[in-house]
Amino acid sequence: MFRRPVLQVLHQFVRHASETAASLVLERSLNRVQLLGRVGQDPVLRQAEGKNPVTIFSLATNEMWRSGESEVYQIGDVSQKTTWHRISVFRPGLRDVAYQYVRKGSRIYVEGKIDYGEYTDKNNNG
Asked: Exposed, middle or buried: residue 35 (CB in 10 Å: 0-12, 13-18, 19+)?
């Protein structure tokens, strides 16, 4: 009496589990960032012993908005939030160009990916 419904439920569960496992293998993800802002400090070139050099600098992005209860867009206080980003350039040609030409105050556009790994040089500076 219960055997058939239990087997049907079990079969559905197994099929769902195998489809889920297969979809996890084929699942795609995206790690891409685009930033447009001003450089906060001149780039520095760092290199850990036995590793490739990296150019590092900070980049500020600003978000601005008006606050106020008026429906007229031009009335209200302007607020601003600045977010600082630490940019690391690893690609050899681009790393050297960034180190040579990017300067504090430069307005630049950066594309890349986010990686929260830590980098330390030979003096254990991060």
From this structure: middle
Residue 63 falls inside a structural domain: yes
Domain with 54 in it: 30-112
pLDDT tens by residue, 63-97: 988 776 655 556 668 889 999 999 999 999 999 99
Residue 48: CATH number of its domain: 2.40.50.140
C-alpha dihedral, 32 to 38 to 39 to 41, nearest 10°? -140
Q: How many domains does the chain have?
A: 1
Report helix, strand or coil for 27.
coil
Does 4 score more than 60 pLDDT? Answer: no
For the whole model, what pTM was predicted? 0.65
